[in-house]
Every structure is written in structure tokens, then in C-alpha cells.
From TrEMBL:
Cell membrane found in the keyword field: no
Molecular-function GO terms, alphabetical: DNA binding; DNA-binding transcription factor activity; pyridoxal phosphate binding
Family annotation (SUPFAM superfamilies): PLP-dependent transferases, Winged helix' DNA-binding domain
Name of the molecule in the record: Transcriptional regulator, GntR family
Family designation: In the C-terminal section; belongs to the class-I pyridoxal-phosphate-dependent aminotransferase family.
Length: 443
């Protein structure tokens, strides 16, 4: 195994060694097991030698040997005489690809997510309390009372923000309807619009939000079912200006146009004022989409909708036909995490990672340009004269997944842009930028 492959492997392992307690050998075995079971390491993958892994992890060879021995006993690894240590060959090939082989991914910058839950303070929990619900059967459609009280108002709890976007789209749009979106916009919203048979119509934007004149003209021309807007923009990381939001809200209110406002990133403002709110000026026509995925952890799959009646009743009915109710256990766990964690620490860490990625890109890829994002989890980067769909394919050959700009455009435009998540740890970000630089220099 080459030294570059060993370094990439070590960066991935070090990122996981932050989890859990106990001896290093046990944590190392757990990290390798997790990578194998989630598919990040595929069957047949050769592992670094004990000596090489101990060197790059700066630990004793005995700790690595103990971890490998635990994996041998569990049947996860196998020794091949004269060749080395490999993951057992049983099982299907991972959808994530083949780590440390051509086309493999060791750093995923394509997904704008919390990379792991290690930043959370996890309280001691009574399992019996997690199972206690007012209805006893657990099908509490509006949501778990304790979580709803923490959120405030009369929210409808959903299985994450994406379900909220999907429910709002299905409630407001019909096949053939136009839906106004920012240009660019969140790819999950485009998918929901397409799924229900509607069509997305892009409205030009600047760093403050949709341009008011263009928004007004698009309403008159397309007679849309609703408009989709974001409080903190994904992919660009801009924060919706309060004055601009108030102007757009007034236009939508006067046109009796519903607005679906995506506030899933609203807590991740790194600098400057908080985003404006459409419901302040348009209280009877706004559906707000919220989520805990970006501030706690995506694996919770807990979000909520806020809307006026009768919209809320219609959304609740659609939710019931979709999945009956969101997991009560997940909601109760989310409520406990909310009580024991604040968002400020994670926000500050994200801002540091944003600046780290930006500095690495400036150093290794000075031709690339972007505007500093005031919020969110990603950089929206322009690669001059480059088709980023093709570049994304080449980047995977060097072990990095990136999201091409066309995924965020209603007309498949922005083909010279990439969305790069800065949520990974600094070491993995450095490895990823080095790999992107090699891709960029490829003839």
C-alpha cells in the first residue's frame, strides 16, 4: 500500500477515533468495524500493515495488533500469507465504492450534513421513559408533546426536513404547476417538485435573496402554485436579508401566493444578522420547514412544519397517509439532546472548518473562486472554464466526492460550480483538497 493511501486511511480512522471511551485498541477495532459494516470499506480491501498504521496514527504497534486480532476473532478480517491483512471477502460490494482503490471515496464533500454526532453531549437516558407516550400505542400524529413544547407553537413533527419539503410540495402543487425557486437552489427541493409532477421555475437572485422585480414578473407570467425560498441558502451559504424578505413577503401576500420557507439551516449563521422570516409579513400563507439534522445529527431524522390553518390540517392529513407518525423514541431522544446541547459550540466549530477549507483551497487551487458564506455547511465554488460534472467523475478517481453545480439548478445550469461541504474534520479536508488539486492538474 502506497504512503499516500496509508495517509488517507489514517485520516479516515483518526476522524472516527474521537468516538467512545476505553483503550485505543478497542476504539481502533470499533472504527474499523464501523467502516466495514457501513460499506465505507468494501470486502477484500487490503488494510495497512501493523507497522505502517502504528506509524501514521502515532501509537504503539501492539495497539494496532490487538485491534487486528479482535477483528480476526470476529471474522471481519483475514490474514493472507505473504500478502497482508484484508477485510473478509463475504458480502456484497458497497454502494459507496471501493475505499483506497481507483474510483473510491475517502472524503465526501458532496453531502451538506453533520458528519458524525461526536460534538453532542449525550445525557443518561432511561429506556422506559423513551417508550412512554400519552397514547401508549405511540402513533401520536402531531408529535411527542415534550418535543413540541420545546419547539414552541403548534408544530407538526416530521421525519426530517426533506419530508417536510415533500409534504408541503404535495399539499400545494399539482402535476403541471409551476413552482418558483431561487437560482441556484437546494437539490432536495427540486427533487420533491419533480416527484409530484410540477416544474421548477428559477428566479434570479443576489446575495440578499430573490430579486423583487424578477419575483413579481415570474408570478405574473407563470401563475405558480407556490414559491420555495431558503433562510440560509444551500448551496451558496448566503443569509436571507430581512428587508429583502419583507419585500418579497409583501409581493407574495398581495398575489395570494403561498411560500414554503426552508429554515433547516437557520441556526447555522456564522456571521452577521439572522435571516428574515416570511411569516412576519405573510402570516396566513407561509409553511416553514425546520430540522434538527444540521445542528444535532442527520441520523435523528427529526424535523417539523409550522403553518397556519387550514394548511396545517392539510399537511397533517398528508403526513398520516405518508407514515402514520414520526418515531416517538426518536423524538424523545431528540428532545433530551435539545435540553443538553446548545448550537453555539457546533456553529463555532463549523466556522473554523469553513475557514480551514477556504485557506487550503486558496493555497492549492488559487484559480478557484467563491464568496465567503455567512451561514450553512458548504462553499459554492466556481471552477473557471470547467464542466464540473466531468470534474466530479475525475475527483472520485482521486478519492473525493463533490457535488456538481448542475444538481442545484432548475435548468441544469451552473455547470462551472461545485458545492463543497466544510463539515468534515480539518485533516480530512486537507487530504481532500490535495486530491482535488491532483484532479485539477490532470491533463
Amino acid at each position: 500500500m502506497s504512503s499516500a493511501d496509508v495517509d488517507q486511511f489514517a485520516a479516515l480512522i483518526r476522524d472516527r477515533l474521537r468516538h467512545g471511551n476505553g483503550p485505543l485498541s478497542r476504539r481502533l477495532a470499533t472504527a474499523l468495524t464501523d467502516l466495514a459494516r457501513t460499506g465505507a470499506l468494501s470486502p477484500g480491501t487490503r488494510l495497512p500493515s501493523e507497522r505502517d498504521l502504528a506509524r501514521v496514527l502515532e501509537c504503539s504497534r501492539g495497539a494496532v495488533a490487538a485491534a487486528f486480532n479482535a477483528l480476526f476473532e470476529e471474522g471481519i478480517c483475514e490474514r493472507r500469507h505473504g500478502s497482508g491483512t484484508y477485510l473478509a471477502a463475504a458480502g456484497r460490494e458497497s454502494a459507496m465504492g471501493r475505499l483506497l482503490r481507483p474510483g473510491a471515496v475517502f472524503a465526501d464533500l458532496s453531502t451538506s450534513v453533520v458528519p458524525d454526532p461526536s460534538h453532542l453531549r449525550v445525557p443518561k437516558l432511561d429506556p422506559a421513559a423513551l417508550l412512554s407516550t400519552p397514547s401508549r400505542h405511540g402513533y401520536d400524529l402531531p408529535g411527542e408533546p415534550g418535543l413540541r413544547e420545546l419547539i414552541g407553537g403548534e408544530p407538526l413533527i416530521t421525519g426530517g426536513g426533506q419530508q417536510g419539503i415533500d409534504l408541503a410540495t404535495r399539499c400545494l402543487a399539482r402535476p403541471g404547476d409551476a413552482v418558483l425557486v431561487e437560482d441556484p437552489t437546494y437539490t432536495g427541493a427540486l427533487a420533491a417538485i419533480q416527484s409530484c409532477g410540477a416544474r421548477a421555475v428559477a428566479v434570479p437572485t443576489d446575495r440578499r435573496g430573490m430579486l423583487p422585480d424578477a419575483f413579481r414578473d415570474a408570478i405574473a407570467r407563470h401563475r405558480p402554485a407556490f414559491a420555495y425560498a431558503q433562510a440560509v441558502h444551500n448551496p451558496a451559504g448566503t443569509v436571507a436579508d430581512a428587508d429583502r424578505v419583507a419585500e418579497l413577503s409583501g409581493i407574495a401576500r398581495d398575489a395570494a401566493l403561498p411560500v414554503v420557507e426552508d429554515r433547516t439551516l437557520a441556526e447555522l449563521v456564522h456571521e452577521g444578522p439572522r435571516p428574515g422570516r416570511f411569516a412576519d409579513e405573510h402570516p396566513h400563507g407561509v409553511v416553514e420547514v425546520h430540522s434538527l439534522s444540521k445542528v444535532l445529527w442527520g441520523g435523528l431524522r427529526v424535523g417539523w412544519l409550522a403553518a397556519p390553518e387550514p394548511l396545517l390540517a392539510q399537511l397533517t392529513e398528508l403526513k398520516q397517509t405518508s407514515d402514520l407518525a414520526t418515531s416517538t423514541v426518536g423524538q424523545r431522544f431528540a428532545a433530551e439532546l435539545l435540553r443538553h446541547n446548545d448550537f453555539a459550540t457546533w456553529r463555532a466549530e463549523l466556522a473554523r472548518r469553513r475557514d480551514h477549507l477556504a485557506a487550503a483551497l486558496r493555497s492549492h487551487l488559487p484559480q478557484w473562486t467563491w464568496e465567503r458564506p455567512a451561514g450553512g455547511l458548504s462553499l459554492w465554488v466556481r471552477l473557471p472554464g470547467t464542466d464540473t460534472e466531468r470534474f466530479a467523475e475525475l475527483a472520485r478517481d482521486n478519492g473525493v466526492a463533490v457535488a456538481p453545480g448542475s444538481l442545484f439548478a432548475a435548468d441544469r445550469g451552473h455547470r462551472d460550480h461545485l458545492r463543497l461541504s466544510f463539515a468534515l474534520g480539518p485533516e480530512l479536508l486537507d487530504q481532500a483538497v490535495a486530491a482535488l488539486a491532483r484532479t485539477w492538474e490532470r491533463p
